[in-house]
Amino acid sequence: MIIIVSIFISGYAMANILKYMRITRNKLLAIIIAVVLIFFFTLLDQILSYETYKKLRNVDLNLSDILKITLRQLLIIVFPTLLVLTGRNIIREIIRTNEVMDYIIWVLLTLISILIYPYTLKLLLRAKPCKSHDLIIELSSFLKNHNIQKANIYIWPSKNEKIANAYICGLIAKYIFISDYLVYNLDMDEIKAVLAHEIGHWKKHHIEIRILLMLFTYPLFLIVSSFLDYLATFKNINIPIPIGIFITFLVFFIYISMILGIFRKQEYAADKYAIMTGVKYEVYRSALSKLALLNDLSKHTNIICEKLQTHPHIERRIYYITNIYKQLKREI
């Protein structure tokens, strides 16, 4: 978080330097600079921590493999945002726009990035359609029990890097991505438990909520910039550029913290959905514990670190589902 915030501050500062140097398309260059710096510092971090990472995770990967994996993971995170920001700036260079048109372009590009995201994920994860006939039958039957008649099930290779995870995405067609490391280490009931959690995200409309949160970032930026302009124009308060940058990033840091809090609540809601729809408590608890072990996740996370994560730590989630299970037993 500290690195990313510092990088965007650097990118903004460099954009202003380029502007004063009268180099055109400074906003597009600022985006490129910020992204390049994110990639540079993240890859540098991987290079410096390579030997420690190998020992902690006990993986048989050379540095080149680690950097390729990191690069793909970065692209998965950065590509949708990069598509929206660069697309918007290129369009603004071609046609004259106003604030309303800018927002319409923002919304359309965001929706496009979301619609193509499953294909982006498929490409970057190197995922292939599931070839296990037994697994397809089991999961398809499980999905039908949750009123999902059709879904594209993909498996991606992750045994070498030891990543056990699963995703469900897609606004129209549903795409399910499961890592082969997860399939290899969890039994069928535990795989279904993980899948139930992912289905919970879809049933609770978490994808749509996240889209709305993304779409609000642009109006939020306009509100902050308009407020700073108002102070300078009508109140004759000239705010130095570093303070203006600090205020802008403080607002966005608070907003991101709020989003992360919403994400953590969504994880609890998906956990509750899984238990409430019939996944056995013992199976779900076992699946969570195995995922923590397979991914080397700490069961104990201090409250500050947890506030900067999208998921609550495992012990907190297990405590939560235990209470849900006890409540169900009392009702029975």
UniProtKB/TrEMBL annotation:
It comes from the Bacteria. The keyword Mitochondrion does not apply. Gene3D superfamilies: Metalloproteases ('zincins'), catalytic domain. Residues 144-322 form the Peptidase M48 domain. Binds 1 zinc ion per subunit. The chain crosses the membrane at residues 31-50, 71-91, 103-125, 211-233, 239-263. CDD domains: M48A_Ste24p-like. Its cofactor is Zn(2+). Keywords: Cell membrane, Hydrolase, Membrane, Metal-binding, Metalloprotease, Protease, Transmembrane, Transmembrane helix, Zinc. Pfam families: Peptidase_M48. InterPro entries: HtpX_protease, Peptidase_M48. Signal peptide: none annotated. The keyword Amino-acid biosynthesis does not apply. Belongs to the peptidase M48 family. This is M48 family metallopeptidase.
